[in-house]
Amino acid sequence: MKLKQQISSVINNALLKSNIEVDNPIVINEATKVEFGDYQYNGVMGLAKKLRKNPREIAQEVVSNINLDGIISKVEVAGPGFINITLSDDILSNEISNILNNDRLGISKIDNPSTIVVDYSGPNMAKEMHVGHLRSTIIGDALVKLFRFLGNDVIAQNHIGDWGTQFGMLIAYLEDIGVEKSDRLKDLEEFYKNAKKRFDEDDSFKDRAREYVVKIQQGDKHCLELWKNFIDVSLAHCEDVYSLLNVSLTKDNVKPESFYNDDLANVISDLDKSGMLEVSNGAKCIFLDNSEIPVIVQKGDGGYLYATTDLSALRYRNRTLKANRVVYVVDARQSQHFKDIFNIAKKSGFVDSDVLLEHIAFGTMMNRDGKPFKTRDGGTIKLVDLLNESISKAKNAIKERDKYSDKELEEVSKVVGIGAVKYADLSINRESNYIFNLDKMISFEGNTSLYLQYAYARIESILRKSDKDIKIEKILIDDDITHRLVLMVLKFEDILNRASKDSTPHIISAYLYELAGLFMKFYEQNQILDNDSRLAISKITSETIKLGLDILGIKVLDRI
After folding, report:
1. How far apart are CA 406 and CA 408, in angstroms?
2. Residue range(s) in the chain whose domain bears CATH number 3.30.1360.70
3. How many other CB atoms are there within 10 angstroms of residue 373's CB atom?
4. Nearest-angstrom CA–CA distance, 146 and 503
5. Closest CA to 413 of 426, 404, 422, 424
6. pTM of the predicted model as reported, rounded to 2 decimal places
7. What are 357's strand-pairing partners?
8. Cα→Cα distances 370→22, 63, 331, 366, 434, Å
9. Contact in structure between 44 and 86 (CB atoms under 8 Å)
């Protein structure tokens, strides 16, 4: 199912018949409005400039040489020289018939799969996950699912900060209060707050905390046992949140700062050998072109920084994991950091020149007042509290629409509530800030997950009523709305490939919303139950919505 390739072949043949040479492969775009056709060729403008001819005249010449047998039913010249293309019902019928009862809806895996490392989530240790971790976690996981579905070898990495002063502070504080250890994350978080206060106010405590950090790094048995307890308790909490969010991260994906610790001295040594290091006020730095602020990789006291660990991680991902593409899903405020680190990694040879390094930046989730999301007293909202609030609101929104048992209501509320939070984020351009408004998110109207989940459930209800095992050799297309719906379904592969290339899950959301809206029009204008072709189209549409939401990490329901 490669409609664009088939159309491209037809246009290329028309260009040859017109004796027009093109320098680059032609570009076929989807038409912006259905009444203007299904696809559009917009390369005439460039040809006109090269040939010094009127673009509409060139477009008309190309159109006159287009073969209308089979693939294309109509072509028109529009605007200054665009060629609008309408596909034949017959080609769409063949294509949609071929994907009926196909597990992948006819979507092929890419020809040249990559090894892609996706670095995302990055929760803090000895603290509960908060709303600031939400966007990285769900955007990153959607990309992991998308890349894998398209056939890539994807390695998810959860880079956690487990190797710092906070752990020395905790050990010193537990020693002071006579507590050996705790298996409750809330206890550790409270201990950390108290330890931080003492660290800031008491120099002797500060010295002891730093001594314990050194002991951890030197392998002291007692300190390592406590440190491991802090990490295990923290990660158990993270796994509970990931399970609630329907996110695929596990302990196996954790690659903490401590993993790279033994390599940091080598990083400094190798950077020095490359001639990139300079000493400034006792610190080892790298000065990059067009930047007045150096990247510090080792402090004057010998301590390492985030930059050092990130460079070690990049080298590991390049040399050991053999990544072709490394994707960091981190908020936009870190843009300069990653720009510098990527620059250094390439210049130093830590990462091969052909490896694609990407910072997948995202904006801030805002409260209704347009300010960063905080509690009333200015604290950071716990992620679990936010998710539970969404589940509670979902329960109130759906319990009056159908009769559910208590168990069913709990399950449906969770699916709807979690889906609402994830979809609200994944339906906007990731670089944008957005207002978090649960009332709008949990709505049966508008571009929400609940709207799509309801559309899916409605189609499933139709299919249950038909009670047919849908088997049909050729699906017929007999009106304009059916043509448009089938074409939209067949564009799903292009949508997924574009979202993968640009790391933009929001275009999948936009596609699903438009697809669901088209189906509702199709449903309103046609009798479906007595027509096998329309039932087949309904089935494929349902499966497309389900697959699209699954890639976004959102569950569907057979009944809402």
Report:
1. 6
2. 3-87
3. 18
4. 9
5. 404
6. 0.93
7. 326
8. 50, 51, 18, 5, 8
9. no
Which residues have a Cβ under 8 Å from the Cβ of 531 and sit 6 or more positions away? none
Q: Which region holds residue 558: left if phi is over 0, alpha if psi is between -120 and 50, else beta?
A: alpha
For residue 221, CA distances in Å to 215, 228, 231 come to 9, 10, 15
Rounded (10°) CA dihedral 428, 520, 5, 429: 0
Pull the structure tokens for residue 140: 């990153």
Is 481 within 8 Å of 519 (Cβ atoms)? no
User: Look-up: residue for tokens 């593409």?
Assistant: 325
The C-alpha atoms of residue 488 and residue 385 are separated, in whole angstroms, by: 38
What separation in angstroms does the CA of 502 have from each of 134, 428, 431, 454? 21, 14, 12, 29
Pick from 238, 239, 246, 551: nearest CA to 418: 246
Closest CA to 171 of 139, 144, 210, 200: 210
Give the angle subtended at the CA of 177 by the CAs of 173 and 181, to the nearest 5°.
75
Nearest to 100 by CA among 541, 555, 546: 541
Q: Which amino acid is at 481?
A: I
Three state DSSP letters for 167-183: HHHHHHHHHHHCCCCCC
Q: Tens of pLDDT along the chain (560 residues)?
A: 478 888 888 888 888 898 887 776 677 888 776 668 899 988 888 888 888 889 999 999 999 999 887 899 999 999 889 999 999 999 999 999 999 999 999 999 999 999 999 999 999 898 899 999 999 999 999 999 999 999 999 999 999 988 888 899 999 999 899 887 788 888 888 898 999 999 999 999 999 998 998 888 788 999 999 999 999 999 999 999 999 999 999 999 999 999 999 999 999 999 999 999 999 999 999 999 888 899 999 988 888 899 999 999 999 999 999 999 999 999 999 999 999 999 999 999 999 999 999 999 999 998 877 777 765 555 678 999 999 999 999 999 888 777 888 899 999 999 999 999 999 999 999 999 888 888 899 999 899 999 999 999 999 999 999 987 888 889 999 999 999 999 999 999 999 999 999 999 999 999 999 999 999 999 999 999 989 999 999 999 999 999 999 999 999 999 88
Q: Under a CB-based contact definition with an 8 Å cutoff, are residues 134 and 365 in contact?
A: yes
Give me the sign of the Cα torsion angle 324, 153, 363, 445: positive
419 φψ region: left (φ > 0), alpha (ψ -120 to 50), beta (else): alpha
Q: How is the chain split among helix, strand and coil, in percent rounded to 5?
A: 55, 10, 35
Let me know: does 399 contact 442? Beta carbons within 8 Å.
Answer: no
Q: What is the DSSP letter of 209?
A: H
Closest of 481, 479, 462 to residue 539, by C-alpha: 462
Tally: H helices and E strands in the chain: 20, 13
CATH of 3-87 given 3.40.50.410, 3.40.50.80, 3.40.140.10, 3.30.1360.70: 3.30.1360.70
Residue 182, CB-side half-sphere exposure with 13 Å CA sphere: 19
C-alpha span between 102 and 96 (Å, rounded): 10
